[in-house]
Amino acid sequence: MTRVLVLNGPNLGRLGVREPEVYGTATMADLRTAVEAWGEKLGLTVDVRQTDDESVLVGWLHEAVDAGAHVVLNPAAFTHYSYALRDAAAQVTEAGLVLVEVHLSNPLAREAFRRHSVVGAVATGTVAGFGTDSYRLALEAVAARPGRAGRTGGPPGEVLGVDSPENLTRNGLDGPAGAPPRSGPRPSPGDRPGLPR
Ligand code: DQA
Q1: Class for the domain spanning 2-191
Q2: Among the atoms of ligand 1, which is closest to the Cα of residue 22?
Protein backbone atom coordinates (compact mmCIF):
# COMPACT_ATOMS: atom_id res chain seq x y z
CA MET A 1 0.00 0.00 0.00
CA THR A 2 1.12 3.53 -0.72
CA ARG A 3 2.12 5.19 2.53
CA VAL A 4 1.42 8.88 3.21
CA LEU A 5 2.52 10.95 6.19
CA VAL A 6 -0.02 13.72 6.83
CA LEU A 7 1.96 16.25 8.83
CA ASN A 8 0.63 19.31 10.61
CA GLY A 9 2.59 22.18 12.10
CA PRO A 10 2.16 24.60 14.98
CA ASN A 11 -1.20 25.59 16.43
CA LEU A 12 -3.12 23.09 14.30
CA GLY A 13 -3.68 21.06 17.45
CA ARG A 14 -5.92 23.98 18.45
CA LEU A 15 -8.31 23.52 15.52
CA GLY A 16 -11.91 23.82 16.64
CA VAL A 17 -11.16 26.55 19.17
CA ARG A 18 -8.62 28.57 17.17
CA GLU A 19 -10.21 31.28 14.99
CA PRO A 20 -13.13 29.10 13.89
CA GLU A 21 -14.25 31.86 11.51
CA VAL A 22 -10.99 31.24 9.59
CA TYR A 23 -10.24 27.56 10.16
CA GLY A 24 -13.70 26.07 10.76
CA THR A 25 -15.00 24.11 13.71
CA ALA A 26 -13.51 20.67 12.98
CA THR A 27 -10.89 19.63 15.56
CA MET A 28 -7.61 17.87 14.82
CA ALA A 29 -9.32 14.65 16.00
CA ASP A 30 -12.13 15.23 13.47
CA LEU A 31 -9.55 15.92 10.78
CA ARG A 32 -7.64 12.74 11.65
CA THR A 33 -10.83 10.65 11.44
CA ALA A 34 -11.75 12.18 8.06
CA VAL A 35 -8.22 11.80 6.65
CA GLU A 36 -8.06 8.16 7.74
CA ALA A 37 -11.43 7.46 6.08
CA TRP A 38 -10.39 9.22 2.87
CA GLY A 39 -7.08 7.37 2.88
CA GLU A 40 -8.81 4.02 3.25
CA LYS A 41 -11.14 4.80 0.34
CA LEU A 42 -8.21 5.78 -1.83
CA GLY A 43 -6.14 2.72 -0.89
CA LEU A 44 -3.56 4.77 1.01
CA THR A 45 -2.03 4.02 4.41
CA VAL A 46 -2.16 7.39 6.13
CA ASP A 47 -0.39 8.45 9.30
CA VAL A 48 -1.69 11.76 10.68
CA ARG A 49 0.58 13.73 13.02
CA GLN A 50 0.75 17.22 14.52
CA THR A 51 3.51 19.07 16.33
CA ASP A 52 4.30 22.60 17.44
CA ASP A 53 8.01 21.81 17.24
CA GLU A 54 10.00 22.65 14.08
CA SER A 55 12.71 20.05 14.70
CA VAL A 56 10.11 17.30 15.13
CA LEU A 57 8.53 18.26 11.81
CA VAL A 58 11.95 18.25 10.12
CA GLY A 59 12.60 14.79 11.59
CA TRP A 60 9.29 13.47 10.23
CA LEU A 61 10.22 14.71 6.74
CA HIS A 62 13.55 12.86 7.01
CA GLU A 63 11.58 9.78 8.09
CA ALA A 64 9.36 10.10 4.99
CA VAL A 65 12.45 10.14 2.73
CA ASP A 66 13.98 7.12 4.45
CA ALA A 67 10.68 5.18 4.40
CA GLY A 68 9.73 6.15 0.84
CA ALA A 69 6.47 7.70 2.07
CA HIS A 70 4.66 10.52 0.29
CA VAL A 71 3.78 13.61 2.34
CA VAL A 72 0.78 15.88 2.77
CA LEU A 73 2.13 18.83 4.76
CA ASN A 74 0.36 21.72 6.43
CA PRO A 75 3.41 23.65 7.66
CA ALA A 76 1.12 26.26 9.33
CA ALA A 77 3.10 29.41 10.26
CA PHE A 78 6.41 27.65 9.34
CA THR A 79 5.17 27.97 5.74
CA HIS A 80 6.17 31.58 5.71
CA TYR A 81 9.67 31.59 7.20
CA SER A 82 11.16 28.17 8.02
CA TYR A 83 14.10 27.51 5.69
CA ALA A 84 14.86 24.41 7.77
CA LEU A 85 11.47 22.99 6.88
CA ARG A 86 11.89 24.04 3.27
CA ASP A 87 15.22 22.22 3.04
CA ALA A 88 13.70 19.10 4.60
CA ALA A 89 10.69 19.26 2.24
CA ALA A 90 13.10 19.60 -0.71
CA GLN A 91 14.66 16.26 0.25
CA VAL A 92 11.25 14.58 -0.07
CA THR A 93 10.65 15.74 -3.64
CA GLU A 94 14.35 15.31 -4.54
CA ALA A 95 13.82 11.65 -3.58
CA GLY A 96 11.05 11.49 -6.18
CA LEU A 97 8.27 11.37 -3.61
CA VAL A 98 5.13 13.51 -3.77
CA LEU A 99 4.84 16.36 -1.26
CA VAL A 100 1.58 18.32 -1.29
CA GLU A 101 1.51 21.57 0.71
CA VAL A 102 -1.98 22.09 2.14
CA HIS A 103 -3.74 24.91 3.91
CA LEU A 104 -7.21 25.10 5.37
CA SER A 105 -7.50 28.80 4.59
CA ASN A 106 -6.31 30.57 1.46
CA PRO A 107 -3.16 32.36 2.66
CA LEU A 108 -3.04 34.41 -0.55
CA ALA A 109 -6.30 36.09 0.47
CA ARG A 110 -5.04 36.99 3.96
CA GLU A 111 -2.37 39.17 5.60
CA ALA A 112 0.68 40.09 3.52
CA PHE A 113 3.08 37.92 5.58
CA ARG A 114 1.03 34.82 4.67
CA ARG A 115 1.26 35.44 0.92
CA HIS A 116 4.70 33.89 0.60
CA SER A 117 5.48 30.22 1.13
CA VAL A 118 9.10 29.15 1.44
CA VAL A 119 7.92 25.54 1.02
CA GLY A 120 5.83 25.93 -2.15
CA ALA A 121 8.74 26.02 -4.59
CA VAL A 122 10.00 22.59 -3.46
CA ALA A 123 6.55 20.98 -3.18
CA THR A 124 4.97 18.89 -5.91
CA GLY A 125 1.91 21.12 -5.61
CA THR A 126 -0.27 23.11 -3.23
CA VAL A 127 -3.95 22.89 -2.22
CA ALA A 128 -5.33 25.80 -0.18
CA GLY A 129 -8.59 27.40 0.77
CA PHE A 130 -10.97 24.43 0.90
CA GLY A 131 -11.02 23.86 4.66
CA THR A 132 -10.56 20.22 5.64
CA ASP A 133 -11.38 19.31 2.05
CA SER A 134 -7.90 20.60 1.11
CA TYR A 135 -6.55 17.41 2.69
CA ARG A 136 -8.91 15.17 0.68
CA LEU A 137 -7.91 16.87 -2.55
CA ALA A 138 -4.24 16.46 -1.60
CA LEU A 139 -4.74 12.74 -0.89
CA GLU A 140 -6.50 12.32 -4.25
CA ALA A 141 -3.50 13.95 -5.93
CA VAL A 142 -1.16 11.50 -4.17
CA ALA A 143 -3.39 8.52 -5.00
CA ALA A 144 -3.38 9.54 -8.66
CA ARG A 145 0.44 9.30 -8.65
CA PRO A 146 1.12 5.86 -7.15
CA GLY A 147 4.67 5.87 -8.48
CA ARG A 148 7.19 8.49 -7.58
CA ALA A 149 6.48 11.95 -8.96
CA GLY A 150 8.82 14.33 -7.16
CA ARG A 151 8.61 18.01 -7.80
CA THR A 152 6.78 18.24 -11.10
CA GLY A 153 3.93 15.87 -10.33
CA GLY A 154 3.08 15.24 -13.98
CA PRO A 155 2.54 17.35 -17.06
CA PRO A 156 0.79 20.70 -16.40
CA GLY A 157 -2.92 20.55 -17.08
CA GLU A 158 -3.11 16.78 -16.67
CA VAL A 159 -6.40 15.80 -15.00
CA LEU A 160 -6.02 12.74 -12.84
CA GLY A 161 -8.43 10.94 -10.53
CA VAL A 162 -11.29 13.46 -10.70
CA ASP A 163 -14.49 12.15 -12.22
CA SER A 164 -17.10 14.80 -11.49
CA PRO A 165 -17.49 18.16 -9.76
CA GLU A 166 -19.96 16.52 -7.33
CA ASN A 167 -17.29 14.03 -6.28
CA LEU A 168 -14.91 16.88 -5.57
CA THR A 169 -17.10 17.92 -2.65
CA ARG A 170 -18.65 14.59 -1.70
CA ASN A 171 -16.88 14.00 1.58
CA GLY A 172 -16.00 17.48 2.77
CA LEU A 173 -16.53 18.52 6.38
CA ASP A 174 -18.59 21.68 6.68
CA GLY A 175 -16.92 24.78 8.02
CA PRO A 176 -16.37 28.40 7.14
CA ALA A 177 -13.12 27.64 5.36
CA GLY A 178 -14.76 25.00 3.12
CA ALA A 179 -15.94 25.82 -0.37
CA PRO A 180 -19.69 25.48 -0.95
CA PRO A 181 -20.66 22.66 -3.29
CA ARG A 182 -20.79 23.87 -6.86
CA SER A 183 -24.25 24.02 -8.40
CA GLY A 184 -25.51 24.88 -11.86
CA PRO A 185 -23.83 24.28 -15.18
CA ARG A 186 -20.05 24.24 -15.50
CA PRO A 187 -18.60 26.90 -17.75
CA SER A 188 -17.36 25.52 -21.04
CA PRO A 189 -13.67 26.10 -21.88
CA GLY A 190 -14.86 28.72 -24.38
CA ASP A 191 -16.23 30.81 -21.48
CA ARG A 192 -12.82 31.11 -19.88
CA PRO A 193 -10.66 33.66 -21.65
CA GLY A 194 -7.01 32.77 -21.88
CA LEU A 195 -7.47 29.02 -21.56
CA PRO A 196 -6.59 26.81 -24.53
CA ARG A 197 -9.64 25.34 -26.25
C1 DQA B 1 -2.53 27.66 7.70
C2 DQA B 1 -2.24 29.07 7.18
C3 DQA B 1 -1.03 29.66 7.88
O4 DQA B 1 -0.80 30.99 7.42
C5 DQA B 1 -1.26 29.71 9.37
O6 DQA B 1 -0.11 30.19 10.04
C7 DQA B 1 -1.73 28.42 9.95
C8 DQA B 1 -2.69 27.63 9.20
C9 DQA B 1 -3.82 27.07 7.08
O10 DQA B 1 -3.98 25.86 7.16
O11 DQA B 1 -4.66 27.82 6.57
O12 DQA B 1 -1.40 28.08 11.07
O13 DQA B 1 -1.45 26.82 7.32
Answers
A1: alpha beta
A2: 11
